[in-house]
Amino acid sequence: MLEEELTDLVKTTLTALYGERISDIPINFQHTRKEFEGDRTLVVFPYLKFSGKSPEITAEEIGKELLGSSELIVDYNVVKGFLNLIVDNVFWVNWLRNFKGLEFEAEKGTYMVEYSSPNTNKPLHLGHVRNNLLGYSVSRILEATGKKVVKVQVINDRGIHICKSMLAWETFGKGVSPQSSGKKGDHLVGEFYVKFDQVYKEEVKALVDSGMEQKQAESNAPIMKSAKDMLLKWEEKDQKVRGTWKMMNDWVYEGFNKTYERLGVQFDRLYYESETYLVGKDEVIRGLGKGIFESENDGSVWVDLTEDGLDRKILIRSDGTSVYMTQDIGTAILRFKDYPDLEQLVYTVGNEQNYHFKVLFLILKKLGFSWAEGCVHLSYGMVELPSGKMKSREGTVVDADDLMDEMVETARLKSEELGKLEGFSESEKEALYHVIGMGALKYFILKVDPKKQMTFNPEESIDFAGNTGPFVQYTHARIKTLLAKSESTSLQLDSTIDIEAVERNLIKELYRYKEVLELSAREFNPAYLANYAYDLVKLYNQFYQTVPVLKEENTAKRNFRLLLSTRVAERIANAMSLLGIAVPDKM
Asked: By CB count within 10 A, which of 40, 81, 121, 310 is most buried?
């Protein structure tokens, strides 16, 4: 590797110039900034106390010694206390010639990534799309860097929100089912969740109009009281309530699975809150006995975190029912029991739950679980539309299935408008529309840093120019078409071949891939990888426009450019696959 070779050279040079005492000082390289010439930059400030000279003179001394003693370094320049080193073209050509797939040592231990984790009272929406794409891509990136990964979701299949949909169906549904209505199960159940909210608001308004206080009206609305009674019956395992619950959940699961398949995400393990909440409840009771938690006169159980800079948090209500926090405690405990070698448990959840996870991780530590240090919240910003925020209770969310339909249809219209479909059969066209539409959706979401809030614009995402999925896909197809026309089977390289600056830059970008992949894994951030793919295709298109490939008469140069094109296509395909995006061979 270049960094290793340069480190050895610089250590030898520093010892020769300034003596043995300097051999233990760290060697720090940076990528040379784009406005300066160079491949790597050495920061010389740590060596000033040994040289006894200014940063500029010290850098000049080191550069001159490296230039005279190594064939790897062919030139250098100094900018203040920074030494920019220029590496011989032979290194880059040899690296391309000996190019291998990325190799990472398999790591011990397991990494678990949780994502999706929907409620079974409504279909998946645009917010879930970002969650799923982010969690799935992070899982793929971790796997690519040698980690064993388990992809999981916890399904929120119990609680007052579930009872709202159930009660509305029982009250207003007249026995309707997905089969009788022709609707996906998750969509049908979601309609009853919206119906509950509509009736609830009407009842609250009527009570307020009759003179009742707002908060009292919200608690005393008949439909809400009925939903709370249903939750108590569920916890008491009432046969009728449990029967309705299982039937409607099954409708939702069938709908979810169709959406996941279309979105291209999978899971290795499912956890259900209906099975884990009792574990959490038992743990809270144990903590109460140890004095970690405290009980109120009404029988509710709380944790006081005020000394930790947080607040008091309820864990068990006065009626004995548990809250989300209690369920999450139980789920975490079960996961670390199921996977004793679990190194990290990564929760992919929106930033509106930042406080929740601070409290959860702190409670787990207070309960004495050392593995709580390995719990991480992958917090991401909300997704908005140009028209503003979505509200699921009011039925104003962007449904994930409708969004995917819109993306594929937009891909169809754009492709037909650009006239890029000559020679495609109808079935090939349909497949291509799906690849482009889904690629546009995934790339547009994943290119944004997870921590940032984003606005999703379907029209902007499907553009065959600019930082978009279709632009990256089109470049890959262009390269594959070029390679198919070349009909070359063996591409031998001469390491002394002269290469252009644009070719050198392209090789350097290929070389940077491993570093970007490691950064993406370390920070759970696919945006680094997405934007790397864009930078790579920009450089390739510059190369494609600058030098001839198939028309190059010099066989050695032609072979070099074909091999370079091959490696770029491989890198594009690999990077995009880790984002869950397919790249076509022709467009």
From this structure: 121
If DSSP codes are grouped into helix, strand and coil, which group holds residue 75? strand
- Yes or no: say if 252 and 186 are a contact pair by the CB < 8 Å rule: yes
In this structure, what are the phi and psi dihedrals at residue 310, rounded to the nearest 5 degrees?
-110, -145
Full-model pTM: 0.91
DSSP class of 122 = S
What DSSP designation does 450 have?
Answer: T
| CB within 8 Å of 17: residues ≥ 6 apart | 51, 61, 62, 65
Q: What is the DSSP letter of 175?
A: T
> Strands, DSSP E only, in 351-470?
375-380, 383-384, 454-455
Closest by CA position to 462, among listed 434, 481, 421, 482: 434
- Cα dihedral 236/240/242/246 (nearest 10): 180
Closest of 439, 441, 422, 430 to residue 476, by C-alpha: 439
H/E/C letters for each residue in 452-464?
A: CCEECCHHHHCCC
Q: Do 41 and 54 meet the contact criterion of CB atoms below 8 Å apart?
A: no
One digit per residue, pLDDT tens: the chain, 587 residues?
899 999 999 999 999 998 867 767 889 899 999 899 999 999 999 999 889 999 999 999 999 999 999 999 999 999 998 999 999 999 999 999 888 778 788 888 999 999 998 989 989 999 999 999 999 999 999 999 999 999 999 999 988 999 999 999 999 999 999 999 999 999 999 999 999 999 999 999 999 999 999 999 999 999 999 999 999 999 899 999 999 999 999 999 999 999 999 999 999 999 998 888 889 999 999 999 999 999 999 999 999 999 999 999 999 999 888 888 998 999 999 999 999 999 999 999 999 999 999 999 999 999 999 999 999 999 999 988 776 554 444 445 688 999 999 999 999 998 888 877 878 899 999 999 999 999 999 999 999 999 999 988 887 888 888 899 999 999 999 999 999 999 766 667 777 889 999 999 999 999 999 999 999 999 999 999 999 999 999 999 999 999 999 999 998 899 999 999 999 999 999 999 999 999 999 98
- Cα atoms found within 13 Å of the Cα of residue 220, Cβ hemisphere only: 12
CA–CA separation, 582 vs 573, rounded Å? 7
Q: Distance between the two ends of the chain, CA-based, in angstroms?
A: 36
Q: Are the CB atoms for 489 and 480 separated by under 8 Å?
A: no
* Residue partners of 586: CB distance under 8 A and separation at least 6: 477, 480, 481
Spatial distance between the Cα atoms of 337 and 48, rounded to a whole number of angstroms: 53
Tokens linked to 329: 């405690």
Phi, psi of 274 (to 5 degrees): -65, -20
